[in-house]
Amino acid sequence: MTRSLPAALAALVCSAALAGCGAASEAAEGTRGPAAAATTPDRSRTPDPSRTPSPAPSRAPAADAARPLAGRTVVVDPGHNPGNFRHPREIGEKVDIGTARKECDTTGTSTNASGGKAAYTEAAFTLDVSHRLKKALEERGAEVVLTHDADRPYGPCIDERARIGNEAAADAVVSVHADGSAVGNRGFHVIVPAEVREGSADTGPIVAPSRTLGERIAAAFARTTGTSPANYLGDGTGLDVRSDLGGLNLSTVPKVFVECGNMRDPKDAALLTSGAWRQKAAQGIADGIVTYLQG
Ligand SMILES: [Zn+2]
Predict the structure, then answer these.
(1) Is 18 inside any structural domain?
(2) In a domain, 177, yes or no
(3) Number of folded domains that form the chain
(4) How far does residue 176's CA lie from ligand 1's centre (Å)?
């Protein structure tokens, strides 16, 4: 996730990655529409003759089963900008993450180039899954904000990524990644914030809801993709708790990172480079968010 590529490889893969990055930009506006407050009771259900108290009103306006996220805001963070490869100096600038100062951003990892096939960068992967995730969430009624859409030369820096979620008052934030670990290390994991209270970081209020969000996503991700939790960390839970990620430390809203698989393992890489599998991955993350937000 945080490993850099050699410059030559970076230059090679970058142009390929950028070829698919011409999508229209998304304004990272943090405003929420007034619709969220306009909850009306759902009167479509059959009256209950026993006159027991009706269930707690749904937090989603109009309680439309097909649009369970209506009135909700989800921020989706494509973990690395494909342009980062060309801006090593800028992304190397240190920013404050509360517990330390850390690089603004990283290039991310990639699959290994092999058999004449170019490497597939984590940046391209995260952007593709994020687009699919955005669509899946919007179909369920959510307002979705992307932290970037490869519509800027590099970044955003990790502190700005956190700020975008905070300013959107997001109900949930998911940062999409893939790992760069040793061959044989396989599977997905979800990174949740540790309790951190230092400098500008205070994760106290988000530790518990973020963990729940992470558990819901891990369960749904395993179900839709058929892949297993990581075999190299998290003791098979698919969850990892970290205190060194600025994107989590500086968040004031529930947030997790999803590491969808290990790009350096050939078997995982075969999945990560499949569009059909990425659709399942996005579906799993969306399903997990729905389950979390429906409480
Ligand atoms: Zn990453």
Answers:
(1) no
(2) yes
(3) 1
(4) 7
What is the rounded distance in angstroms from the CA atom of residue 90 to the CA atom of residue 74? 28
Catalytic residue IDs: 259
Q: Which residues surround ligand 1, an ion (CB under 5 A)?
A: 1, 79, 108, 177
Q: Which of 135, 133, 146 is nearest to 27 (CA)?
A: 146
Ligand 1 centroid to 109 CA: how many Å?
A: 7
Ligand 1 centroid to Cα of residue 105, in Å, is: 10
Rounded distance from Cα 259 to ligand 1 centre (Å): 7
Distance CA 97, CA 286 (A): 28
Residue 281 Cα to ligand 1 midpoint, Å, equals 16
Question: Within 13 Å, how many C-alpha atoms sit on residue 153's CB side?
Answer: 6
In a domain, 254, yes or no: yes
146 domain-assigned: yes
Task: Give pTM, 2 decimals.
Answer: 0.79
Alpha-carbon span 248 to 103, nearest angstrom = 15
CATH code of the domain containing 101: 3.40.630.40
Q: What residues are paired with 259 via a beta bridge?
A: 177, 189
Domain enclosing residue 249, as ranges: 73-293
Kindly report the length of the chain. 295
Tell me if 256 sits within 8 A of 190, measured CB to CB: yes
Q: What angle do CA 250, 136, 242 make, to 5 degrees?
A: 25
Encode the chain (295 residues) as per-residue pLDDT tens digits. 544 444 444 444 433 333 333 333 222 223 333 333 334 444 444 444 444 444 445 554 555 788 999 999 999 999 999 999 999 999 999 999 999 999 999 999 999 998 888 999 999 999 999 999 999 999 999 999 999 999 999 999 999 999 999 999 999 999 999 999 999 999 999 999 999 999 999 999 999 999 999 999 999 999 999 999 999 999 999 999 999 999 999 999 999 999 999 999 999 999 999 999 999 999 999 999 999 999 8
55 Cα–ligand 1 center, Å: 41
